[in-house]
Each structure stands twice: as C-alpha cells, then as structure tokens.
From TrEMBL:
Pfam families: Branch. It is found in: Membrane. This is Glycosyltransferase. It comes from Lactuca saligna (Willowleaf lettuce). Its main location: membrane. It is a single-pass type II membrane protein. Keywords: Glycoprotein, Glycosyltransferase, Membrane, Transferase. GO terms for cellular component: membrane. The keyword Coiled coil does not apply. One of its GO terms (molecular function) is glycosyltransferase activity.
Length: 362
C-alpha cells in the first residue's frame, strides 16, 4: 500500500524566505548606509606626487612663490587652511578679521580645500575668499583617512605656493575668530622681540593638542582591528587630539614627507564610532617625532559638553553675547584661544554686530 506523504510544513516557509531575499537586499542597499570607499590608488599617487614636489622645492635654495597668492617680503606669513564641504559660512566675519588693517595684507595667505562633490559659491576676485584660493581637492568622508589627505594636501599646496608661509593654521567652515588678526600674528611670532630674515628655520612650536590619557583611547587605537597598528604605532605611543592645529613650516614639511605611519592610518576602520583618523594621525606622528617642538594644546576652543554623534556642542544665536566671547577666549594654557567652533550659520548677524566692539577689540 502506497501512502501519500504530506508536504513538510517548513517547505512553504523556506520558499517564502528564498523569495524574500532579493527584496530584503534591495531595500537594505537603499536604507542602510554604505561604508565609504577607501582611498583609491590614483588619488594616493596624485597626492604622493604633490608631496614629493613640495618637499623637493622646499629644499631648493632659490624657492620662490609660483602664484600671485604669494609674494616675497621680509616678514613671515600665516597660511590659513580652510577645510570645508560647504561655503565659508562666516565669510563676512573672516573678511573683517583679515582686512582689519592695511598692514595685514602681506602677512597672510588663504587656501581652501572644498569638497568637489558639494556645490559651493565663492566671491569674485577682490575678496579674501574667491575661486583662485581653491586648491585641487578630492572628496572627503567622515571617519576616514580622506580628511588626513585633505589636510596634508592643504599643507603641501601652501608650502609650494609661498616660502614666506611660516605657520599653517587649519580652519573649518564652522570656526570663528576670537581675536583680531594682529593679535594672533603677534602671539605666534612675538613680533616685538625680533625681526627675522631667515624665518624658514624658526624654532617656534606647533600648537597641536596631544593627549595620551583618554577613556576611549584603547577603542580608538583598535578601530581598525586589534594589533593592526603594530609595529609602527605601539599603544603607548598612540595619541589623540583636536583636529584643528597651527603647525610650523618645519612640522608641515615633516607631515607631507611621512610615509611609515600613514600606511597604518589610511586603513579603513571596522568601528566608525571610534574612528577619527584626523584626530589621531597628526598628534601621534608629531608626538613620536618631535614632542618638544609641540605645545601640546590647540588654539581652537571646541566644547565637547553634550556632544552628539561625535559632533561638539553647537552654539545658537540666543547664546551669543560679549560674555560668551570672553569665556571662549579663556584657556588653561600659556596662550588664550584664538578661534572657536561650532556655530550655526544664523549666528553670523549677531557675531557681526559684536565684531568691532568685542571680537576684534583685544
């Protein structure tokens, strides 16, 4: 007698699951964020060519500026490196900062790395922010080494452009100045105490935050996987710090020539929540190579109270007052803070109202 076996109750369920897989992957690819791509080989080779060219020209005894942004003069300059993925939100305030005195005009240069995938508008020639301040840029992604590349790209272009650039200050579109340009310049160069002809070899320190003790240090160190930083970067030499710095020319040159640690820091992270390569690479490298040449602190005030998703506290117009500016200037270190972040774009008008009587009155 032949018995007819009933189909297993699991078969319809399995068939349903198999039919659902294509739908699941379709929606997952549209809903779940895809990991950012690694730095491509062509981009890496482009940067390497740029860095080698800047290093070679730096060693040439007759290094002269190649663009109209630079000019030969007897005084050293500050190169301001704007890293942005939007317009310079506080451009009018920065215009006042740079143009506060006619004597300032030969004391600074400006370079802008604007993400090429984001549409930006810059003023026509004549203002301090214009198209001819833009350097050749590449796309950046948060929590990746592309931000290190962008900052090194800014340093290399500033080194190539003008041998008068003696300090290199990194700024974001969310930063504002807290003092006048002349106050900042005098702070860096101690202008009253010297007149320098060979300022390319000044023995000044870089202002960069270097932290060796942090509750998240171990997680940040292992963001690419355990032991992935070895042997080049032992844990006891790993450092973290603020993304924003002011480097001497000597340190800027060291950074663009560096290859050994870069091979580690350019690796993609497995845990993006602990991955902030631009806050790790520069403090670690300079701490390993020249700790005595660094102040150990930054000149940019960033408030990490009530931070959200790795972003610092953001100030809004209702919070702005002269008292806030004075508070943001105060530092526990030798020098006061010169800049601060992060501010919403609608802070511009109240900041402009305070510019002459508060911000630029030192």
């Amino acid at each position: 007698m032949i018995s007819s076996a009933l189909p297993s109750p699991w078969i319809p369920t399995l068939l349903l699951l198999l039919l659902s897989l294509p739908i699941f992957f379709f929606f997952a690819s549209h809903i779940l964020p895809s990991p950012p791509p690694p730095i491509s080989l062509p981009d890496e080779l482009d940067d390497l060519t740029l860095f080698r060219r800047a290093a070679a020209l730096e060693s040439h005894p007759n290094h002269k500026p190649k663009s109209r942004l630079g000019s030969t003069n007897s005084k050293p300059k500050i190169a301001f490196l704007f890293l942005t993925n939007s317009d310079i939100q506080f451009a009018p305030l920065w215009e006042k900062f740079f143009n506060g005195s006619k004597s300032n005009r030969n004391l600074y240069t400006i370079y802008i790395h604007a993400d090429p995938t984001v549409k930006t508008k810059f003023k026509s020639p004549g203002g301090v922010f214009s198209q001819d301040r833009l350097i050749p840029a590449k796309q950046t992604h948060r929590a990746t080494a592309t931000l290190i590349s962008a900052e090194r790209r800014l340093l290399a272009n500033a080194l190539l452009d003008d041998p008068s650039n003696a300090f290199f200050t990194l700024i974001s579109q969310h930063c504002i100045p807290l003092h006048s340009f002349q106050f900042f310049y005098n702070t860096l160069f101690e202008a009253s105490s010297h007149q320098v002809a060979e300022f390319r070899h000044l023995k000044y320190k870089s202002f960069i935050e270097i932290i060796s003790k942090d509750p998240n240090l171990w997680d940040r160190y292992n963001a690419r996987g355990k032991k992935m930083m070895l042997p080049e970067v032992p844990f006891d030499e790993f450092r973290v710090g603020s993304q924003f710095f002011t480097l001497t020319r000597r340190h800027a040159l060291m950074v663009i020539q560096e290859r050994r640690l870069w091979k580690k820091f350019m690796r993609p992270c497995l845990r993006s929540v602990a991955c902030y390569p631009e806050e790790h690479y520069f403090p670690t490298f300079l701490s390993m190579e020249d700790p005595e040449g660094c102040s150990g602190y930054t000149l940019t005030n960033v408030n990490w109270t009530d931070s959200v998703n790795g972003h610092p506290y953001t100030y809004h117009p209702s919070e702005l007052s002269p008292e806030l500016i004075y508070k943001l200037r105060r530092s526990n270190f030798v020098q006061p803070y010169m800049f601060a972040r992060k501010f919403t774009p609608d802070c511009l008008n109240p900041l402009m109202d305070m510019a002459d009587d508060v911000i630029f009155r030192d």
